[in-house]
Model the fold of this input.
Amino acid sequence: MSESSDAAVKSCLDCGSDACCGGGGELPGFCPLRGRAAAVCAAEEAGCGIIPDAEDGPALPCFDEYAPMTRVEETMAFARSIGAKKLGVATCAGLLGESRTFARILRANGFEVYGVCCKVGSLSKLDTGLKPEELAQFKNGPIMCNPIGQAMLLNRAGTDLNILMGLCVGHDSIFYRFCDGLCTALVAKDRVLAHNSAGALYETGSFYRKLLK
Done:
């Protein structure tokens, strides 16, 4: 996005006020809350961050920031807060080892686990119309990922909550679209930064300064 377009359309990313977080600051002129934007009113009517169909009534999945948990622990706490007992794991083939460890932890904590790998079905990339000689451009082999199949198999398994383990950018979006139930992500794939995507943001003052050019 160009500088001119940044200046023309402002959002929460450009706000310096802490009014929405309970502070006493004033709302800037471009704030979507001014005039009670339709989207904000609709969110209020829908319950904002409340899970309406939790097992024991509406659930507010919010955890004490002063008693920090790892994301693994927080995911289990969230599952319990909505009454989820059968958890689906949508995993990248490259993170099957980590997903198996995660499944062991979930089962040790009383959850039923059902996992589906991204390569399920062994669908060939040649079926998309690629020529055999074009397969060389793909370093991960001739079998393509199948996020739609993952979603549909987890739907059929009747999972209460689905957890993503390193699905590719784009494949995760497709998975969310075709999944019937609630989803969350435990691992966001980042092959360069050992799946710590925020690392690139922390390094924009030095090594990743190039990302701002």
Notes: Strands lie at 86-91, 112-117, 161-165, 182-187.
